[in-house]
Amino acid sequence: MSNLELVVLGQDDAAVCCTPLAREPLGEEAAADLAKMFKALSDPVRLRLLSLIASHEGGEACVCDLTGPFDVSQPTISHHLKVLREAGLVGSERRGTWVYYWVRPAALAKLSALLQAPTGESG
């Protein structure tokens, strides 16, 4: 497995979109959108799936590569992937009989920007 560096596209847009919680309160619409992402990540299987996809060689993974590490059925994995996709955390594309998934860097940048800790303060 190679050490590929993921390029985060649209990171400036994500930072503008989501001011860190420590600086100003979230608006209602932004909170609803972000809650969808956090809710999707609150399940251990989905969190592991996101990690597997992000760390997969080439930055994308076939659904056939994602079923082995889990003690759940393939339809359950597909359901979890659908939740991640609907939350905007992963993208997907059908290629022949398989579906390939990749992490959406802008979504991770949005979450990261929101949770960014203020600098210079001790806690």
Report on the structure:
This protein is α+β, with helices and mostly antiparallel strands and 123 residues long. The protein has 6 helices and 3 strands. It has helices at 11-17, 28-41, 44-55, 63-66, 74-86, 105-115; strands at 60-62, 90-95, 98-103. Strands 1-3-2 form a 3-stranded antiparallel beta sheet. The longest helix has 14 residues, at 28-41. The protein is elongated, with a radius of gyration of 16 Å. Residues 6-16 have low confidence and may be disordered.
Write down the Rg. 16 Å
Straight-line N-to-C gap: 38 Å
What is the tally of helical segments? Answer: 6
Proportion in β-strands: 5-15%
Q: What structural class do helix, strand and pairing data support?
A: alpha+beta
Q: Return residue spans where pLDDT drops below 50 for at least 5 consecutive residues.
A: 6-16
Shape: elongated
Strand order of the largest sheet: 1-3-2
Order of helices and strands: HHHEHHEEH
Q: What is the overall pLDDT average?
A: 82
Largest sheet geometry: 3 strands, antiparallel
Helix content: 40-55%
- Strand elements, count: 3
